[in-house]
Amino acid sequence: MTIKILVATGLLCLTGCMAGQEALEPPKAPGDVIRFTAGRCFGACPAYRVQVSPDGAALLEPERFTSVPGPTRFTVTHAQYRKLVATLAPHRPAAGTTQVIAHGKSCERFATDMPGYTIEWSRPGQAATRLDYQSGCMDARYGRLRVAIAAVPKILDMQHMLNPKAVAP
Questions:
Q1: Half-sphere CA count of 17, side-chain side, radius 13 A
Q2: How many CB atoms lie within 10 A of CB 29?
Q3: In angstroms, rounded to a whole number, what is the distance separating the alpha carbons of residues 21 and 24?
Q4: What is the pTM of this model?
Q5: How far is CA 140 from the centre of its chain?
Q6: CA angle, residues 25, 27, 31, in degrees to nearest 5
Q7: pLDDT in tens, the chain (169 residues)
């Protein structure tokens, strides 16, 4: 029994070490690392987190309903990174702050069971800037934010990694 406990403990430690390795290197190019998280919904929405560096490195960490089985590294062009920054810029809160758009917080028309999205901009040595948006918020003033969020997978050319039907049986 003691051997089983030791083996299990060792595997857990190894798994923890491996999980900590899935991150992007600190960027050498100036700019923000952008972390985009698509949360769960009541249905079959892809849930994932993607990190994009100004260097062009990107990491997709799937949670469920995606076509990739685990953390997947890919590359984005400088043009894709600039387009992502420009698309999200009008919705970026003041530097170092967090803005929450959710039912009961700056949202009047609300649909339940929709995914939440988090966008975080960070640079070494600076406080992160964060936007939390519950996509069930249907207020007209957030229409452009909804369009920007929907554009992220296309901008990063990662739609094929989010489509569970793309997985060969």
A1: 6
A2: 11
A3: 9
A4: 0.83
A5: 24
A6: 145
A7: 444 443 344 444 444 444 445 788 888 888 999 999 999 988 889 999 999 999 999 999 999 999 999 999 999 999 999 999 999 999 999 999 999 999 887 888 898 889 999 999 999 889 999 999 999 999 999 999 999 999 999 999 999 999 877 554 4
